[in-house]
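Contributing new records

If you add data, match the layout below exactly. Sequence lines come first and carry their own label; structure lines follow with theirs. Keep one chain per record. Anything else will be rejected by the validation script.
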Amino acid sequence: MSLREIAPRTYAYVQGDGGWGLSNAGFVAGNGDALLVDTFFDLPHTRRLLDALPGRPSTVVNTHFNGDHCWGNELVADARIVAHKLCREQMLTGPAPAVLAALAQGDGGGVPAVEYMKRAFERFDFTGITLTPPTEVFEDTLVLDVGGREVHLFHYGPAHTLGDAVAWVPDERVLFTGDLLFLDVCPLIWDGTATRWLAALDAMAALDPAVVVPGHGPVAGADGLHTLAGYFRLLLEQGQALHDQGVPVEEAMVRLDLGEYAAWVDIERTALNVQQVYNELDGVDTPVNVVDAFGAMAAAAAPHPLGGGCC
């Protein structure tokens, strides 16, 4: 875990390999003012983040509702907390920290999906978290003044989630993407489609960023956006071919040829993404069943490898 100045008065805090729950954060300092992009999954990780920062934020932006980007909000509750309106809605109606706390304390009961989730989240302490939603929301765009520096918020969801937003710092051409970008880590299509995610990547690339801070994974340049786009194009191309052949989705997950992407952290998440590609092709637009999704990922992470070769 490390804090790095990626441009003058602009920082990225990167956590490990970016696997389950290890999200990144950003910090933008202006004249007598500062902005934080995202808090973390639990209070201990968020405290380490806040202790590492060069100042106290007066504004916090949550890029979306997943707990690893907002469950530390109570530690900055004195700040103005801003997010897209759908982020706030999903935060209030989505899984509560107490649910993961109970999961972490249980034995898993031999259920593959539950055992997988326990392994994924065992490094975190979900006890004592008070859900602290945004105090201000926006719809499409919002410009924030951070001590004389502008930070632009754009809503590019639904892709990963409904309320996906990015923070763009135009004076240094730095883009904080939230989970619209995973680098060297497999993404998850929870609420959108692969096609919509590609459109979001195109919109971010059009900003012509010099530095890109993903939600998970290492800091990069604009090339990072193109890398993730390549993954989704591969998924759509092979998914279409397998779907047209009538291959069941469970078999399609095994027959994919993931090529250079096969070594990504948590690549078994592709099981969810393939299901979403099939749903898109079938015109199905129903919420993901989280237990079923984790069950598919658990199966893909089992001894048989995911990605045996298309098509």
